[in-house]
Design brief:
Blueprint: E1 5-13, E2 16-21, E3 24-30, H1 32-41, E4 46-51, H2 63-72, E5 77-80, H3 86-94, E6 99-102, H4 104-108, H5 111-120, E7 125-133, E8 144-148, E9 153-158, H6 159-169, E10 173-178, H7 190-199, E11 204-207, H8 213-221, E12 227-230, H9 232-235, H10 241-249
Parallel strand pairs: 1-4, 1-12, 4-5, 5-6, 6-7, 7-10, 10-11, 11-12
Antiparallel strand pairs: 1-2, 2-3, 7-8, 8-9
Helix pairs in contact: 1-2, 8-10
């Protein structure tokens, strides 16, 4: 069995890490480069950086920030926000990131997944997916709808169908974020996580709702996720990366060892 991963997400706005609840009420927390280095030394397996206003502002990702992160940490990290085409993907990867994440762009232009996978390999392409629980309908049979533009625009696209299509196009893994659970610290949305983990053959990263070590354990076992993404638990100083991994590992979940 493959080891499970612990991943920290840093939402970045105006060169500051920020955190909100259900995409609202964001507060600034600190410099993303310094925070990345701290989490690296604390034993996190991977990091994810989202420039949350780049797409809305029509500007590219902050490449200087990507380079600075790459100079300080020696674990995989992915970058999303402001990715407009394959050339932008190339710039991010050349700046030192291991992966690029596409979300709203992929919904508008699904072929960007195939183009990125052909150019750099599927392992470099992550599909970011924000899912909202809705009533089941003929168009959204799973009861989970894809929402884009930072939670501001509903698409009418069924989350399960979108995941399967993205896998066919060549995406390497899916970062599944539950809008309903995001930032609440009340636990992951286990239903959609387990549904998606069973529906696709690529890794699924669970995102949204982590508040306790029990939540991490639950999503990696009952939710069948390959990795758990966290933010508030460590951003606000209530937990440490290594402490979380040790606690979950002690309950029989095989976690990655600390990078040396």
């Amino acid at each position: 069995m493959l080891s499970k991963r612990l991943i920290i997400c840093l939402d970045v706005r105006d060169r500051m890490t920020t955190k909100g609840v259900k995409f609202k009420g964001n507060v600034d927390l600190g410099d993303p480069v310094e925070m990345a280095e701290r989490y690296y030394h604390d034993g996190v397996d991977e990091l994810v950086f989202y420039d949350i206003t780049a797409s809305a502002e029509g500007r590219p990702i902050d490449i200087d920030m990507v380079r600075e992160v790459a100079e300080r940490i020696f674990i995989p990290f992915s970058v999303g926000g402001g990715i407009r085409n394959v050339d932008d993907m190339r710039r991010v990867l050349l700046a030192g990131a291991e992966k690029v994440s596409v979300n709203s762009l992929a919904v508008r232009n699904p072929e960007i997944i195939a183009e990125g996978a052909r150019a750099f390999g599927s392992q470099c392409i992550v599909l970011g997916m924000d899912a909202l629980k809705v009533p089941e309908t003929d168009s959204v049979p799973s009861g989970y709808e894809i929402v884009v533009k930072g939670g501001r625009e509903r698409t009418g696209i069924d989350a399960m169908e979108w995941a399967k299509k993205a896998e066919e196009l060549g995406v390497g893994e899916i970062c599944l974020n539950s809008i309903d659970a995001d930032g609440t610290k009340e636990g992951y949305e286990l239903n959609i996580t387990s549904m998606m983990s069973e529906a696709v053959g690529i890794p699924v990263i669970a995102s949204g709702g982590a508040g306790t070590e029990d939540h991490i354990y639950d999503v990696l076992t009952e939710g069948k996720a390959d990795a758990a993404l966290i933010a508030s638990m460590v951003h606000f100083g209530t937990h440490t990366c290594q402490g979380i991994k040790d606690a979950v590992s002690s309950r029989g979940v095989r976690m990655r060892m600390k990078w040396s």
